[in-house]
């Protein structure tokens, strides 16, 4: 049995290790930080607009996918006032293809609020940021820490993974989130809060990866419980995902020469405000014949031709299958109420979600 002196030495060593984690983390970050288009260079002050824009774009999306969109946005709208003065249609067009389109609507609403209610300056506290459209607890903490160096720790997926492994958190997500949030604050340095958060994000993205983590290169590896147990890849623990019920429907692709018939979806709801071809309701167990009955009523239209196969798409809460029908309209055929003809050559300028791009490609290909 260890002597009292040995136990005291062990406790002191543990305390030293725990207290040194933020320092070790920042030292690693200063050597290995990622270069990202929205991240301020060492010694520079972060731009709240760029931090906010990147955080909204990165929700449910990878850094690789976001990069080109971020560059396009800041080239078109270099600050929040410029974005707030833009039309929602323009923002949706620029966002098309990035997915989760409610983010684009909230992005625009937030820019308008910052421009009109805050004189173009973002609030510098979590509380003030959370009052803005589309900014939840995580995003508020991220902006407060990174842009304003507030002493708070945002916890994204990368940080969840690092912390859950470091402490071997057995509780499953999402129930474990409060525990992980509390533990993550132990890695927050007294100064450089924003760098502490970004260091953990980078550590999760480059070293503490979901599969085959490079533990030998991790600055926190000496007292990582999961590494000591050899169970790194089993964390974080996650409850089995529930897959939604398959929904089915039909899409109707009508051409008039070199033009395509489209409409805009309602502002609220799934894919709100985006451009689509006419279609049926999306319902579980819907029969093809029932869906086809919802085709647009256009005089002089050629017979509907069903394309072989279906277009599949997976939304957050349900998978979708669409049967695609095509037809041709005569020259000068007027678009039904609420619809419009657009040149096929300029479809890239339309706010088409990925689902509709797949439908059109399937129909016209």
Structure description:
The protein is of the alpha+beta class and 365 residues long. It contains 14 helices and 8 strands. The chain has helices at residues 4-32, 48-58, 63-76, 80-85, 88-95, 102-117, 126-130, 137-148, 157-166, 177-184, 193-206, 225-229, 288-292, 354-364; strands spanning 247-256, 259-264, 275-276, 283-284, 305-306, 311-314, 319-328, 339-343. Strand 1 (247-256) and strand 2 (259-264) form a beta hairpin. Helix 2 packs antiparallel against helix 8, helix 8 packs across helix 11 and helix 9 (157-166) packs across helix 11 (193-206). The longest helix is centred in the N-terminal third of the chain and has 29 residues, at 4-32. It is globular, with a radius of gyration of 25 Å.
Major beta sheet, specifics? 8 strands, mixed
Q: What's the assembly state of these chains?
A: single chain
Mean pLDDT: 92
Gross morphology is: globular
Report the helical percentage.
40-55%
- How many strand segments? 8
**What class would the helix/strand composition place it in?**
alpha+beta
What's the number of helices?
A: 14
Unreliable runs, pLDDT <50, ≥5 residues? 1-16
